[in-house]
Amino acid sequence: MVNVGILVHCRHLDTERWEQLVFGEPASDLLGDHAMLARVVLGLTPEERLACVVFGRGPSWREGMSEDAYAKKFLLDNLGRLSEFASLLPLIERAGPNGWDGFCRAMQAVVGTREVRNTVDEIHAASTVFSDHAVEKVIHIASASHAPRCAKEAAFARSNGRIDRRQMWLTLATDVSYQNTTPADVCVIEPLHRRDQPVTFVRPGLSEVIAPYFALSDHDKVAFIRHVEAFMQHIASAL
Prior knowledge:
Layout lengths: L1 E7 L9 H5 L1 E2 L4 E2 L1 H10 L5 E10 L3 E2 L2 E2 H11 L11 H20 L2 E5 L3 H14 L4 E6 L4 H13 L8 E6 L32 H5 L7 H21 L1
Parallel strand pairs: 1-4, 1-8, 4-7, 8-9
Antiparallel strand pairs: 2-3, 5-6
């Protein structure tokens, strides 16, 4: 029997389209954080046991509740709406009354992390909780437009000893992206590695140049974006 832990990435309560990102869009059968959580839990195999569900806790508050507490209340208040998702309905029916009751109890037992500063910190905090529950397999749920970064940060956290090495981490993207974006808007810049690409040997490489971006002030980020935009437009006009 494999002990499974699920981490639902924290969601700042001022995020645009918070409810759609967290719950999903039933009419379009687009699974958000909570709907994807249901799909994972209800789809566990007989060889898997749900040991723990963890919600990340960022710094925002609403109605006197922290991010994780508010998200958990929202989840519990909307459990009955999960059957509105066409892809979840067969799983709910297959679970039957006993399975559904077990799922609801598991959602009531959701725990939050300590307050975290960023994604790596959230992964470390969750890994500590999972260690306490002897979790061997972790499924990290995040929005379609953030999951790629979560996978990167999990690899970074593992390389720095911030993930229990007994835990196998899998990143799962939901069907919903941030406001006015699609998964195609995500830009993954990895260090080049093929010997037949001359730019591979240019140092510093593009990924190294871009890496400090998130530590910049908002003012400097805007200046950087405008500078890159002007360069791209200049090159395009010369083609």
